[in-house]
Amino acid sequence: MASKISQSKSDLTKRDFRAMIFILFKLQKTRVEIYESFQEHFPNLVPSLSTVERWYREFIDGSFVLEDAPRSGRLNISHNEENVNEMLDLITKDPHITYAQLEYETEYHRDN
Q: For a tag on the chain, would you pick the N or C end, based on fewer CB atoms within 10 A?
């Protein structure tokens, strides 16, 4: 009987699962075999089957990058008083300022 590995969500990242999928892909396991193995060993953390399939497809297509691709989204800023005041000042001066301009002016970056 296979043992279950006790992990908290903070212990395993998306990158960790992607790396495990890559190793199992190289060992010629199927998408379903990988998913079922994750369900057995990481019952509370397993990514969805569609996620496993998407990453598996990326490996088939020759993309072996384990990091998520950059994407647009909300600005990644820390919510301290100085940052909030800086943003409010820029928005007050120009209510039509864009996210890109805020990012440039404040040197904050979008989530990746």
A: N
Question: Residue 31's closest CA among 66, 11, 58?
Answer: 58
pTM here? 0.54
Instruction: Give the pLDDT band (50/70/90) at residue 32.
Output: very high
What is the chain's alpha carbon radius of gyration, rounded to the nearest angstrom? 20
Which structure tokens are listed for 53? 């399939």
Query: CA-to-CA distance for 23 and 27, rounded, in angstroms?
Result: 6
| Phi, psi angles (nearest 5°) of residue 85 | -65, -40
How far is residue 80's CA from residue 85's CA, in Å, rounded to a whole number? 9
Distance between CA atoms of residues 65 and 58, nearest Å: 9
